[in-house]
Amino acid sequence: MHPNTRLAAVLIAGSGLGWPLLAQSELLEDSHASLELRNFYFNRDFRQSGARDKAEEWAQGFLLRMESGYTEGTIGVGADAIGLLGVKLDSGDGTAGTGLLPADQSGGSQDDYSKLGLTGKLKASNSVLKVGTLHFKSPIVSANDSRLLPQLFRGALLNVQEIDNLILQGGRLDRIKLNNSSDYQDFSANRIGGQSDAFNFGGGDYRVSPTLTASLHYGQLEDIYRQTFAGLVHTLPLGEQLSLKSDLRYATSREDGSFRDLDNKASGALFTLKAGSHALGAGYQRMSGDDPFPYIAGSDPFLVNFVQIGDFANTGERSWQLRYDYDFAALGVPGLTFMSRYISGDHVEHASGGDGEEWERNTDIAYVIQSGLLKNLGVKWRNATVRSKFANDLNENRLILSYSLALW
How confident is the model over 380-400, as a mean pLDDT? Predict the structure, then answer.
């Protein structure tokens, strides 16, 4: 067994034995820990001629998260830990490559993989500095969690909330661990390439009023790109259980250092009308400039049309989205939710010439048991269909069983 695997297993076993003893100390009086079990089946069916038939795998994930409190004093000290373990249940013959498991040397998937992440933290007033393993989301850089185990960053993250209604965030990242990997690696930019060992970022979100929030963020993937993001989110009450949410986003990206010339402007808007348990959304996204939208490969771009498979962020692409959500709590079934959306893109500039077109359809059905012995047991089915004139045609299904248990 790999040393990291043994270490993660010890952490998981120890969560029920040794850790409660540590919780008696002053440092851990405000600590908490949880164990998430994630069973993930993934099937991607390739529909065009000349492609392989499918990618299909089934795996079990264990996610142990621990967060301490802080020591007393002007500057509080604490520590967090995350232990990850992924185990192959089935990878078939020639069906590897789903992103659930790391590849082996024979073209298949490894039997297991793991990671232990540790984070030190300091707190002064309402400001927190974290150094080490990081998993967070912001408009300029966000960790992905769409597979068996989450993607992680390594670096430093500072959150400052000293001014009412203003949240400032910044930091420096030096490595990324992809979802299906045990190891940290350098950064690269999606579709653009290049290699970088640092991402610097900073910005803030200001709550102008109870219904309006403005955001401004900046990021630099050293020697590849520089990006500035501005956004507005507004919620307009229209009556009892009726509201209109407007989400406006704009980003500009240029080259950094000696990287080749880079030019992208990304604008997007998503409007959601919520009426009781119903929500109807309509969105539009536009790429301008000579290049696609750059972001760290393996992370989540903050785009209104970034969905289950596609991001609709190719050079020159225009795309629109129509979405519907329903919460079955209104029918007496709390915990049951439904979502369906359709995204269509055109005007894509690609190497073969002409205006490329693509579309994607997603459907999510999820249920989380609300009470009883199986409380917090969730099941989610995610279905996607993609058709493209310049990329793969595919059908995809993901079935995810998850269970979260608070350890203390």
Answer: 96
Q: What pLDDT score does 21 carry?
A: 41
Rounded to an integer, what distance in angstroms lies between the CA atom of residue 91 and that of residue 31? 38
pLDDT digits (tens, 9 = 90+) for 76-135: 999 999 999 999 999 877 899 999 999 998 888 999 999 999 999 999 999 999 999 999
Alpha-carbon distance of 144 to 179, in angstroms, equals 8
Tally Cβ neighbours within 10 Å of residue 53. Answer: 11
- CA–CA dist 357, 387 (Å, integer): 9
**What is the Cα–Cα distance from 232 to 220, expressed in whole angstroms?**
22
Specify the 3-state DSSP secondary structure of 61. strand
3-class DSSP assignment, residue 108: coil
**268 is written with which tokens?**
């997007």
Which residues 6+ apart lie within 8 Å of 203 measured at CB? 138, 139, 140, 168, 169, 170, 215, 216, 217, 218, 229
User: Would you list the DSSP string of 356-379?
Assistant: EEEEEEEEEEEEE--SSTTTTEEE
Distance CA 103, CA 35 (A): 26
**β-pair type (355-368, 336-349):** antiparallel
Distance separating alpha carbons of residues 90 and 88, to the nearest angstrom? 6
Distance CA 64, CA 145 (A): 15
Q: What is the rounded distance in angstroms from the CA atom of residue 153 to the CA atom of residue 178?
A: 9
3-state secondary structure of 106: coil
Q: What is the pLDDT of residues 193-248, one digit of tens each?
A: 999 999 999 999 999 999 999 999 999 999 999 999 999 999 999 999 999 999 99
Q: What is the pTM assigned to this prediction?
A: 0.91
Q: Which residues pair with 316 in a beta bridge?
A: none
**Cβ–Cβ under 8 Å, residues 300 and 284:** no
Looking at the predicted structure, is the pLDDT value of residue 4 above 80?
no
E strand segments, 161-277: 166-177, 187-189, 193-196, 199-209, 212-221, 225-239, 242-255, 263-275
State CA 376 to chain mean position distance.
21
